[in-house]
């Protein structure tokens, strides 16, 4: 399991009229990149109401899922196209458990926090009508990571799973948010959930799915 690339914003580009400028245009970096509590050095966030912050400091996407999209769309999915900071290889991203902790390289430790929810900026970036719905239906969301230990990372660094919590809610399960028994399990496990995810889990459990 390893990093293929580490990506930060190349330049701010126009998004949909509703959003203005966007920092979704990420490109691979050479050498080591510092990782702080709010993300990668040289990166930025425009829509701070919906993106960024400690719980969404770093966005990772699996090369395996990018290859699947490449086959589906008949086009290349270069690293950074989806706005990801990290392109991984051999890492269980969709099947990572909420609260799981990874070490990247020798220093950086991150925690799996939430799936990425597609938005109109992402659809504008892809130029595909109905992209938000299509991306959601595929359940290959990538994952937001919280930085627990700062340091530097670079392409080629190994990714190691340090710990996995005692529940069954993966990134994929949370993205679909329909499995009541599993969501009850994550609520009962005591794992620290983002408030939005906790509210979703409680809502699904309450309606008995």
From TrEMBL:
GO molecular function, one term: molybdenum ion binding
InterPro entries noted in UniProt: Benzoxazolinone_Detox_Enz, MoCF_Sase_C, Pyrv_Knase-like_insert_dom_sf
One Pfam family per UniProt: MOSC
PROSITE patterns assigned to the protein according to its UniProt record, in alphabetical order: MOSC
Source organism superkingdom: Bacteria
Residue intervals of the MOSC domain: 27-162
PANTHER family in UniProt: PROTEIN YIIM
Protein name: MOSC domain-containing protein YiiM
Species this chain originates from: Kribbella italica
Lineage: Bacteria, Bacillati, Actinomycetota, Actinomycetes, Propionibacteriales
